[in-house]
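Tutorial, part two.
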Amino acid sequence: MSKLPTTSTETSTRLDLHRVLDALPDAVATAMQAVFPDQYTPELAEQIARDARARLIEAHPTTAGVRGSEWMARWGCPPWCITDHTDALSPDWHTSAPVETAMRNIDSAHTDDENAQLPWLAAKTVVINDKPQAYGRETRLWLDFGTATAELSPAEGRVVLDALRRFTADFEAVVEHAERTAEDDFEGDPEIARLDREAEDRRIAARTAELAAEADALLAGERR
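Running the prediction step on this input gives:
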């Protein structure tokens, strides 16, 4: 199965977005009564919930929340699918809204601007059910790490999750070791660094001249 390029969303969202939308009114009312009891009114809470719902739907237009049962039946969409199947370039499979880290990509091979375009880690559920009577139905988990993607079965995803949990403790030990080691770090002398670069430039220039002279001598000998 190939993966077409996708655009990362700016907001992490639970896979079952329609459940979040359904829970919004009660959640907003409860939060307002706890935090802003003097400002709470049912009408204001409802208005805030409607605004939040509209923003979530705009960011992640789910099949169930926006397009309805007819759309789902036509394209075979699960309720959480956010794929616009009417787009000529859209895939045949179905994708959930991704969950992703707030931290952006940290690849040293890319510029800061390039890294800012991608989350460090992102994951989503994918279902392939085109002509299921012939080819069946397959659920996959796509785990993005920067520009790379792992296409996993749910069981493989569980293995990766367990590995991440174990790695976190080990990585914390490495970070603590690096912090202790960094206590001996210091800035160099800019003037000494300048002189070193100039000396290196002279060495390279001299060696380049030597190689050019050797090449000229070889060419002259071949002509004779």
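The first helix runs from residue 17 to 35. In part three we will examine how such features are distributed along the chain.
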